[in-house]
Amino acid sequence: MMNYYFDAPLYDDDLLKLGARFAHDVFFLALVVQFGLKRNNETNPDFAFTAVLLNITVFFICFTLKKLDLGLGMAIGLFAIFGVLRYRTDTIRAKEMTYLFVVIGIAIVNSLTNNKTSYLELLAVNGILVAAVLLKEQLVGRAIAAIPPTPPKKKKPKQTLIYDNLQLLAPERRNALIEDLYQRTGLRVTDVQIGEIDLTTGTVQLSVEYEQP
User: Fold this and answer.
1) Separation of alpha carbons 175 and 82, rounded Å
2) Does the reported pTM lie above 0.90?
Protein backbone atom coordinates (compact mmCIF):
# COMPACT_ATOMS: atom_id res chain seq x y z
CA MET A 1 0.00 0.00 0.00
CA MET A 2 1.37 3.41 -0.97
CA ASN A 3 2.28 5.71 1.89
CA TYR A 4 1.37 9.39 1.71
CA TYR A 5 3.00 12.39 3.34
CA PHE A 6 1.10 15.69 3.21
CA ASP A 7 -1.16 14.30 0.46
CA ALA A 8 1.83 13.28 -1.69
CA PRO A 9 3.13 9.72 -2.15
CA LEU A 10 6.56 9.00 -0.75
CA TYR A 11 7.45 6.84 -3.77
CA ASP A 12 6.01 5.71 -7.09
CA ASP A 13 7.27 4.08 -10.26
CA ASP A 14 7.83 7.43 -11.96
CA LEU A 15 11.10 7.74 -10.05
CA LEU A 16 12.55 4.92 -12.12
CA LYS A 17 11.24 6.54 -15.30
CA LEU A 18 12.87 9.81 -14.23
CA GLY A 19 16.24 8.14 -13.74
CA ALA A 20 16.13 6.28 -17.06
CA ARG A 21 15.06 9.26 -19.12
CA PHE A 22 17.46 11.61 -17.37
CA ALA A 23 20.35 9.22 -18.10
CA HIS A 24 19.20 9.13 -21.73
CA ASP A 25 19.06 12.93 -21.84
CA VAL A 26 22.49 13.41 -20.24
CA PHE A 27 24.12 10.93 -22.62
CA PHE A 28 23.04 12.78 -25.76
CA LEU A 29 23.64 16.15 -24.13
CA ALA A 30 27.23 15.10 -23.42
CA LEU A 31 27.69 14.20 -27.10
CA VAL A 32 26.47 17.62 -28.21
CA VAL A 33 28.67 19.46 -25.71
CA GLN A 34 31.80 17.38 -26.29
CA PHE A 35 31.74 17.06 -30.07
CA GLY A 36 29.78 20.21 -30.93
CA LEU A 37 30.23 23.05 -28.49
CA LYS A 38 33.79 22.32 -27.33
CA ARG A 39 35.07 21.77 -30.88
CA ASN A 40 33.53 24.98 -32.12
CA ASN A 41 36.27 27.62 -31.91
CA GLU A 42 33.78 30.47 -32.32
CA THR A 43 31.73 29.53 -29.26
CA ASN A 44 32.54 30.96 -25.85
CA PRO A 45 33.99 28.15 -23.67
CA ASP A 46 31.73 29.18 -20.79
CA PHE A 47 28.69 28.68 -23.01
CA ALA A 48 28.89 24.89 -22.47
CA PHE A 49 28.15 25.48 -18.77
CA THR A 50 25.06 27.49 -19.71
CA ALA A 51 23.85 24.86 -22.18
CA VAL A 52 24.21 21.99 -19.69
CA LEU A 53 22.35 23.75 -16.86
CA LEU A 54 19.63 24.96 -19.22
CA ASN A 55 19.09 21.43 -20.53
CA ILE A 56 18.89 19.91 -17.05
CA THR A 57 16.55 22.63 -15.80
CA VAL A 58 14.17 22.30 -18.74
CA PHE A 59 14.20 18.51 -18.42
CA PHE A 60 13.12 18.51 -14.77
CA ILE A 61 10.55 21.29 -15.31
CA CYS A 62 8.96 19.38 -18.19
CA PHE A 63 9.03 16.03 -16.39
CA THR A 64 7.47 17.54 -13.26
CA LEU A 65 4.77 19.51 -15.04
CA LYS A 66 3.91 16.57 -17.29
CA LYS A 67 1.85 15.09 -14.47
CA LEU A 68 -0.44 18.11 -14.70
CA ASP A 69 -1.52 16.95 -18.18
CA LEU A 70 -0.89 20.32 -19.78
CA GLY A 71 -0.15 18.56 -23.04
CA LEU A 72 1.65 19.76 -26.13
CA GLY A 73 0.83 23.41 -25.46
CA MET A 74 2.98 23.37 -22.33
CA ALA A 75 5.90 21.86 -24.24
CA ILE A 76 5.70 24.44 -27.02
CA GLY A 77 5.33 27.26 -24.49
CA LEU A 78 8.41 26.20 -22.54
CA PHE A 79 10.36 25.74 -25.74
CA ALA A 80 9.48 29.30 -26.80
CA ILE A 81 10.18 30.86 -23.39
CA PHE A 82 13.60 29.31 -22.92
CA GLY A 83 14.45 29.50 -26.60
CA VAL A 84 14.19 33.29 -26.75
CA LEU A 85 16.05 33.69 -23.48
CA ARG A 86 18.53 36.58 -23.68
CA TYR A 87 21.21 37.37 -21.12
CA ARG A 88 21.62 41.10 -20.53
CA THR A 89 25.35 40.93 -19.92
CA ASP A 90 26.29 39.41 -23.29
CA THR A 91 24.76 39.21 -26.73
CA ILE A 92 23.95 35.66 -27.78
CA ARG A 93 24.91 34.99 -31.38
CA ALA A 94 22.72 33.09 -33.80
CA LYS A 95 24.92 29.98 -33.64
CA GLU A 96 24.81 29.90 -29.84
CA MET A 97 21.05 30.41 -29.92
CA THR A 98 20.82 27.40 -32.24
CA TYR A 99 22.74 25.29 -29.74
CA LEU A 100 20.34 26.47 -27.03
CA PHE A 101 17.42 25.24 -29.14
CA VAL A 102 19.17 21.89 -29.62
CA VAL A 103 19.81 21.26 -25.90
CA ILE A 104 16.31 22.48 -25.00
CA GLY A 105 14.83 20.22 -27.67
CA ILE A 106 16.74 17.20 -26.34
CA ALA A 107 15.49 17.93 -22.82
CA ILE A 108 11.86 18.30 -23.91
CA VAL A 109 11.89 15.19 -26.11
CA ASN A 110 13.33 13.00 -23.36
CA SER A 111 11.14 14.35 -20.57
CA LEU A 112 7.73 14.54 -22.25
CA THR A 113 7.60 11.13 -23.94
CA ASN A 114 4.98 8.69 -22.69
CA ASN A 115 4.17 5.01 -23.08
CA LYS A 116 3.11 5.64 -26.68
CA THR A 117 6.72 6.38 -27.61
CA SER A 118 9.14 3.49 -27.70
CA TYR A 119 12.73 3.78 -26.56
CA LEU A 120 13.80 2.94 -30.10
CA GLU A 121 11.92 5.98 -31.40
CA LEU A 122 13.42 8.08 -28.64
CA LEU A 123 16.87 6.84 -29.55
CA ALA A 124 16.29 7.66 -33.21
CA VAL A 125 15.14 11.24 -32.48
CA ASN A 126 18.08 11.98 -30.19
CA GLY A 127 20.50 10.31 -32.58
CA ILE A 128 19.31 12.42 -35.50
CA LEU A 129 19.72 15.64 -33.49
CA VAL A 130 23.23 14.73 -32.40
CA ALA A 131 24.17 13.53 -35.88
CA ALA A 132 23.00 16.83 -37.38
CA VAL A 133 25.20 18.75 -34.93
CA LEU A 134 28.26 16.58 -35.59
CA LEU A 135 27.77 16.66 -39.38
CA LYS A 136 27.40 20.42 -39.34
CA GLU A 137 30.59 20.91 -37.32
CA GLN A 138 32.51 18.56 -39.61
CA LEU A 139 31.33 20.25 -42.80
CA VAL A 140 31.88 23.76 -41.46
CA GLY A 141 35.29 22.83 -40.06
CA ARG A 142 36.42 21.39 -43.39
CA ALA A 143 35.10 24.40 -45.29
CA ILE A 144 36.97 26.81 -43.01
CA ALA A 145 40.16 24.74 -43.26
CA ALA A 146 39.94 24.81 -47.06
CA ILE A 147 39.86 28.62 -47.14
CA PRO A 148 43.42 29.96 -47.49
CA PRO A 149 44.37 32.41 -44.75
CA THR A 150 44.20 36.06 -45.70
CA PRO A 151 47.61 37.67 -45.43
CA PRO A 152 47.62 40.61 -43.06
CA LYS A 153 47.56 43.99 -44.71
CA LYS A 154 50.75 45.94 -44.28
CA LYS A 155 50.03 49.25 -42.63
CA LYS A 156 51.52 52.24 -44.35
CA PRO A 157 53.45 54.69 -42.16
CA LYS A 158 51.95 58.08 -41.40
CA GLN A 159 53.43 61.47 -40.73
CA THR A 160 52.01 64.79 -39.54
CA LEU A 161 53.35 67.80 -41.44
CA ILE A 162 52.93 71.56 -41.22
CA TYR A 163 52.32 72.76 -44.77
CA ASP A 164 52.46 76.35 -45.97
CA ASN A 165 50.98 76.31 -49.50
CA LEU A 166 47.25 76.70 -48.88
CA GLN A 167 46.51 77.17 -52.58
CA LEU A 168 47.05 73.45 -53.19
CA LEU A 169 44.41 72.37 -50.69
CA ALA A 170 41.58 72.55 -53.22
CA PRO A 171 40.20 69.08 -54.14
CA GLU A 172 40.91 69.60 -57.84
CA ARG A 173 44.60 70.28 -57.06
CA ARG A 174 45.12 67.13 -55.01
CA ASN A 175 47.64 65.67 -57.46
CA ALA A 176 49.63 68.89 -57.41
CA LEU A 177 49.65 68.79 -53.60
CA ILE A 178 50.97 65.22 -53.57
CA GLU A 179 53.64 66.11 -56.11
CA ASP A 180 54.71 69.16 -54.10
CA LEU A 181 54.99 67.06 -50.95
CA TYR A 182 57.15 64.57 -52.83
CA GLN A 183 59.44 67.31 -54.11
CA ARG A 184 59.87 68.75 -50.62
CA THR A 185 60.05 65.61 -48.48
CA GLY A 186 60.91 62.78 -50.87
CA LEU A 187 57.92 60.78 -49.50
CA ARG A 188 55.73 58.93 -51.98
CA VAL A 189 52.44 60.11 -50.49
CA THR A 190 49.39 57.93 -51.14
CA ASP A 191 46.80 59.69 -48.97
CA VAL A 192 46.45 63.15 -47.45
CA GLN A 193 44.12 64.22 -44.65
CA ILE A 194 43.70 67.95 -44.06
CA GLY A 195 43.76 68.99 -40.42
CA GLU A 196 43.62 72.36 -38.67
CA ILE A 197 44.16 75.43 -40.86
CA ASP A 198 45.83 78.51 -39.35
CA LEU A 199 45.12 81.53 -41.58
CA THR A 200 47.15 83.87 -39.39
CA THR A 201 50.35 82.00 -40.22
CA GLY A 202 49.20 80.63 -43.58
CA THR A 203 49.83 77.02 -42.59
CA VAL A 204 47.82 73.82 -42.38
CA GLN A 205 48.36 70.56 -40.52
CA LEU A 206 48.44 67.56 -42.85
CA SER A 207 48.32 63.88 -41.97
CA VAL A 208 50.01 62.03 -44.82
CA GLU A 209 50.21 58.31 -45.54
CA TYR A 210 53.14 57.21 -47.67
CA GLU A 211 54.80 54.11 -49.03
CA GLN A 212 57.80 52.77 -47.18
CA PRO A 213 60.85 52.94 -49.49
Assistant:
1) 61
2) no
